[in-house]
Design goal:
The complex is a heterodimer of chains A (74) and B (387). Chain A is of the alpha+beta class. Helix content of chain A is 32%, strand content 30%. Chain A starts with a strand and ends with a strand. Chain B has a 7-stranded mixed beta sheet, sandwiched between helices. Chain B has a 4-stranded antiparallel beta sheet with strand order 9-10-13-12, covered by helices on one side. A two-stranded parallel sheet of chain B has the order 1-11. In chain B, α4 (98-109) links the parallel β3 and β4. Classes of the chains: A alpha+beta (74), B alpha/beta (387).
Chain lengths: 74, 387
């Protein structure tokens, strides 16, 4: 089971991926699905569900904005 | 062929730059940041790595502070036109390239006032005083060249940066002639913005440059459009680098820039500079003995230059000198070098100059050959053909 950390630009997402890797958290870059309420195209990182809270906290402390956490396909 | 027009663009490039450029063209064929498929993500990763490398080279706070542009001119326009508004005051030097002169002239028509600080060759303190004397209550920005593209004169940007910091003025540097040639980064020079070309002292390819911010700043983007992010919004994102990067990026050029930076870092800026300065000193000594050749610099113990030399030959238009050198298989640039104001300042506006600029790949033999040919031209002889 994976969760998606929604970040935004590809640059921030790549940086986030690198930061998480330095904490041994594997992640995969994904395009975020759009819905009627979203602001449009964004990228995010899929991480294991049991690591999502820690990953989000690490990114917050690094100054990388996570705008949402969503369910994602495995 | 002997190529000594490296201040316009360096040639040849290091092997790794060509390889990186070709690899990017072959392997990174998708549009970065626009799709979720593997090829797009892989391309995005390559661009991110280049961004991180470029930002780190100049000591920027984070990778997103590196905004890729088409060239240094685009970066300068972005900074000037994005920051300055009607009623603001901007200071430039009197040695600027048209990349600075023309946009500030346009801004002047829109109500931005412009002042020029006189650069005193060989006296950094006097130059600094001249900048300080131009500061007004509404001075929002100082933007100046780090080194004159015509005469090689280096401006005391470290001191100007400190002055700006003290007076809360935004300081931007046109590093067209200094990036990769002089040690320039936000640690030794607390500027706010550094504008660079990829294809000169950083040995990347033409058609790429960057506006590097010391730390994230908010100002208006010059070009607006698709960024691959927040597409449902009718305005540009507020985060970097997307705010300033609209449209498809020059991926191969960006990867080549990163490879060029690796080359410069590995060889060492000081080592490349020492090599080029030695060549220019050798040329200067040889030409000093040639009757009818004028070297346009007032070298003194306190003068600082980037390695290039502007000369003229008495009684001969500089374009003709360059043409004759071209006949001998030597590439140099003649004329005003897109910096007419600098010629006005230095007293060469009537004729322009012939500019000779080496690179890391220039040899002593190249320099001795051009010295010999210039001597022949000055003596009224036709040059020997070297191909």
């Amino acid at each position: 089971m994976k969760r998606l950390l929604v970040i935004g630009s590809i640059t921030h997402t790549m940086r986030a991926k690198e930061v998480l890797a330095s904490y041994s958290i594997a992640s995969v870059v994904r395009r975020v699905s759009n819905d009627m309420n979203s602001e449009g195209c964004r990228h995010g990182l899929a991480v294991k569900a049991n690591q999502v809270s820690r990953a989000a906290e690490i990114l917050r402390l690094t100054g990388i904005r996570v705008t949402a956490i969503e369910e994602t396909a495995p | 062929m002997i190529y000594l027009d490296n201040a316009a663009t360096t040639y040849p490039k290091p092997k790794r730059v060509y390889e990186s450029f070709c690899r990017a063209a072959h392997l990174y064929g998708a549009n970065p940041g626009r799709a979720g498929h593997k090829l797009s993500v892989r391309t995005g990763e390559a661009v991110y790595n280049a961004r991180k490398n470029t930002a780190a080279f100049f000591g920027a706070a984070s990778p997103e502070c590196c905004v890729f542009t088409y060239n240094c001119t685009a970066a300068i326009n972005m900074a000037l036109k994005g920051i300055l508004r009607k009623g603001d005051h901007v200071i430039i030097s009197d040695l600027e390239h048209n990349a600075v002169v023309r946009p500030v002239n346009t801004l002047a028509k829109l109500g931005v006032s412009v002042s020029r600080a006189h650069v005193v060759e060989g006296d950094d303190s006097a130059t600094l005083d001249n900048f300080a004397a131009q500061i007004r209550r509404n001075t929002r920005m100082i933007l100046c060249t780090h080194a004159s593209n015509v005469f090689g004169i280096v401006l005391p940007v470290e001191k100007i940066a400190a002055l700006c910091k003290k007076r809360s003025i935004i300081f931007a540097i046109d590093a067209a002639q200094s990036a990769g040639v002089l040690e320039l980064n936000f640690e030794n020079t607390p500027a706010d913005i550094i504008c660079i070309p990829a294809h000169k002292g950083l040995y990347g390819m033409m058609g790429c440059g960057a506006m590097i911010l010391r730390e994230p700043m908010q100002f208006s983007p010059l070009i607006e459009g698709g960024t691959g992010s927040l597409s449902a919004l009718p305005h540009m994102p507020d985060f970097l680098p997307d705010r300033f990067e609209s449209g498809t990026a020059n991926v191969a050029g960006i990867c080549a820039l990163s490879a060029g930076i690796d080359f410069v870092r590995e060889r060492g800026i000081s080592s490349i500079a020492r090599h080029e300065h030695n060549l220019m000193r050798r040329l200067e000594m040889q030409l000093a003995a040639v009757k009818g050749v004028k070297i346009h610099r007032r070298a003194s113990a306190t003068s600082r230059y980037v390695p290039l030399l502007s000369i003229s030959v008495e009684g001969m238009p500089c374009e003709e000198v360059a043409e004759r050198l071209d006949e001998a298989g030597i590439c140099v640039r003649a004329g005003f070098h897109c910096a007419y104001e600098a010629h006005s300042t230095q007293g060469t506006a009537a004729s322009g100059t012939v500019r000779i600029a080496p690179s890391a790949f220039t040899t002593v033999e190249d320099i001795d050959t051009i010295a010999r040919e210039i001597e022949k031209i000055a003596a009224g002889h036709f040059p020997t053909r070297y191909i």
